Automatic annotation (TrEMBL):
Species this protein is from: Limosilactobacillus vaginalis
A Pfam cross-reference name: OsmC
PANTHER family found in the cross-reference section: HYDROPEROXIDE REDUCTASE
Name used for this protein in its record: OsmC family protein
InterPro entries in the cross-refs: KH_dom-like_a/b (IPR015946), OsmC/Ohr_fam (IPR003718), OsmC/Ohr_hydroprdx_reductase (IPR052924), OsmC/Ohrsf (IPR036102)
Coiled coil: none
C-alpha cells in the first residue's frame, strides 16, 4: 500500500489556501464573484481537474497494458454545486450534485471500442472510485497553539 499526504494552510490573503505535498506548492483560491482574486483554481475546479488527471493517467497505463492506440485524449469535466447546501440549507446537498464527463479521443479505433476502453479506464481509476463509492475518512486530533 502506498501512503500519500498533503497539507493545506490558510494564507493571509483573503480566501487563498497554500497546499503542498512532497515539496510542491499549489495555491487554491476563489474566483472574484466568490470573494477571491481568481488567481488559482477553487477547490471544486481542482477536484474536477484531479479526476480528469487521474483518468488521463489511468488511460495511459491501461492503453499500454491493453494495446489500445490513441494519439490524444481531451477530457472535459463539468460539475454542479448548489451554494445553498454550502451555506447550511439542510434541504440541499453540500457537495456536487452531478459531474459530467465528455471524452474526445483521437484514435483509429471504432466508437464502440473506444467507449469500452473508457469504461475500463473509469472502472480502474482510483479517484473515480472515491467519488462513486466514497472513502472512509478518519478525523484525528484537533490541537491548539
Amino acid at each position: 500500500m502506498e501512503y500519500y499526504n498533503a497539507t493545506a494552510r490558510k494564507t493571509k490573503q483573503g480566501l487563498q489556501v497554500d497546499t503542498h505535498s512532497h515539496g510542491v506548492h499549489y495555491l487554491i483560491y476563489e474566483p472574484k464573484n466568490a470573494g477571491g482574486t481568481n488567481t488559482g483554481m477553487n477547490p471544486v475546479e481542482l477536484e474536477l481537474s484531479t479526476l480528469g488527471a487521474f483518468l488521463q493517467a489511468t488511460a495511459k497505463q491501461l492503453a499500454a497494458d491493453e494495446g489500445f492506440q490513441y494519439d490524444q485524449m481531451v477530457i472535459d469535466l463539468e460539475g454542479d454545486l448548489d451554494p445553498r447546501g454550502f451555506m447550511g440549507n439542510p434541504d440541499v446537498r453540500n457537495g456536487l450534485q452531478e459531474i459530467r464527463i465528455n471524452y474526445q479521443v483521437k484514435t483509429t479505433a471504432s466508437a464502440e471500442e473506444c467507449a469500452k476502453f473508457m469504461q475500463q479506464v473509469e472502472q480502474q481509476s482510483p479517484i473515480m472510485d472515491n467519488l462513486r463509492n466514497g472513502v472512509k475518512i478518519v478525523v484525528g486530533q484537533v490541537t491548539t497553539k
